[in-house]
């Protein structure tokens, strides 16, 4: 593919020219096919298998699903769809819960309240999916990965891997063996569990999703399971998955295709068409903020306290200043979410950074937190955000948040 010239996030400022974020005309219902501005890649077998020259007309899809993290780019996707004329009842926001069923936490406390408030304020359906036990169940995995659960038409559906029940049986036998001091049984069970699956390490700071497993196991795979097993998307449907990746975020995302077939596409077997669209792929950071500004949306307050990205609080791509910010916001003593990383590094003998432990990595970095917006600080620290907070009131100026143009410090979301 011809890789376009892009404005990298690190080079983008409040004065960067708006190219794509301005007003657009609605096209929904006019039988218009959307074609990517730049032809997608077809070099590898994966590229060829998933290549898609253009999308179907938007009104052709049974539902349009926005992968919704609560960050600026997914906000931009939703607002872009609305401007294109897509009815709200055709859109769904899918949010993956990464702390569900775990006493330990990974996410910012305000992320989920913001997602709920945004969906309610705009009148768009919000659905949740999760891996039982969340992030930490996968970090300390011995045996099968935990089941995936999601909200379906009839309630909560849970899908177990084939070896999940055997994993439970073996762990129960290990507990009994410990009580009986039966070392042979303990070793036998442990070895079988290890053959089923063994993680016992933190995710790596790489693009390979097999070792950066947090994205793969807590988001991508969870979403795929939900599509394949949901009564609403299992068969006889046409689904458009919308996500907010942009070329300006990172070197890897620079070569993403704007549209392609999704991994769950099964037109022959289940009459299920699943396409992917990255409508903001060529947008600059300034374009995204312009769209949000025109709709007068208050973004996630994490941006207003100085963070440049809304990912997990304990994201592996946090830079030293973001980690210092996490410590400032949520504390660093016993029981804090930061201390979980410190303890995990010691227990696993595996550091989050590939060279040094987390405290050495942070060093004497200055916190990225901006204290000028007291309301945003309260929302972030208490984990509160209400539907009435979503829109900036008329008569009040919309302002760029403190973290709006802090480049790509910390890597892509």
UniProtKB/TrEMBL annotation:
It comes from the Bacteria. Pfam families: PAPS_reduct (PF01507). SUPFAM superfamilies: Adenine nucleotide alpha hydrolases-like. Residues 64-315 form the Phosphoadenosine phosphosulphate reductase domain. This is Phosphoadenosine phosphosulfate reductase family protein. It comes from Paenibacillus agricola. The lineage of its organism: Bacteria, Bacillati, Bacillota, Bacilli, Bacillales.
């Amino acid at each position: 593919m011809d890789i376009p010239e892009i404005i990298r996030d690190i080079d983008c400022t409040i004065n960067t020219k708006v190219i794509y974020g301005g007003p657009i005309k609605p096209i929904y219902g006019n039988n218009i096919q959307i074609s990517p501005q730049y032809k997608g890649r077809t070099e590898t077998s994966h590229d060829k298998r998933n290549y898609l020259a253009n999308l179907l007309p938007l009104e052709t899809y049974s539902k349009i699903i926005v992968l919704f993290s609560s960050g600026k780019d997914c906000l931009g996707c939703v607002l872009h769809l609305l401007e294109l004329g897509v009815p709200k009842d055709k859109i769904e926001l899918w949010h993956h819960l990464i702390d569900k069923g775990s006493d330990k936490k990974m996410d910012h406390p305000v992320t989920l309240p913001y997602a709920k408030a945004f969906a309610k304020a705009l009148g768009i359906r919000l659905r949740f999916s999760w891996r039982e036990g969340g992030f930490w169940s996968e970090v300390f995995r011995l045996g099968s990965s935990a089941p995936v659960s999601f909200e379906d038409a009839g309630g909560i559906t849970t899908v177990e891997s084939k070896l999940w029940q055997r994993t439970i049986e073996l762990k129960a036998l290990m507990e009994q063996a410990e009580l009986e001091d039966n070392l042979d049984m303990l070793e036998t069970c442990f070895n079988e569990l290890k053959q089923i699956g063994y993680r016992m390490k933190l995710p790596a700071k790489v693009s390979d999703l097999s070792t950066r497993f947090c994205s793969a196991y807590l988001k991508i795979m969870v979403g795929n399971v939900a599509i394949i097993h949901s009564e609403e998307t299992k068969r006889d449907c046409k689904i458009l998955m919308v996500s907010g990746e942009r070329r300006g975020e990172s070197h890897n995302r620079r070569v993403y295709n704007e549209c392609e077939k999704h991994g769950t596409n099964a037109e022959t077997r289940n009459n299920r068409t699943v396409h992917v669209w990255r409508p903001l792929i060529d947008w600059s950071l300034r374009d995204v903020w312009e769209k949000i500004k025109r709709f007068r949306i208050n973004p996630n307050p994490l941006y207003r306290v100085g963070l440049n990205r809304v990912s997990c609080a304990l994201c592996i791509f946090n830079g030293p200043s973001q980690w210092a910010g996490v410590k400032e916001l949520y504390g660093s003593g016993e029981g804090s979410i930061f201390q979980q990383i410190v303890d995990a590094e010691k227990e696993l003998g595996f550091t989050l950074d590939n060279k040094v432990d987390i405290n050495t990595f942070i060093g004497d970095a200055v916190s990225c937190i901006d204290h000028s917006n007291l309301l945003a600080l309260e929302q972030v620290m208490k984990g509160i955000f209400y539907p009435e907070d979503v829109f900036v009131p008329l008569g009040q100026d919309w302002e760029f948040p403190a973290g709006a143009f802090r480049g790509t410090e910390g890597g892509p979301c």
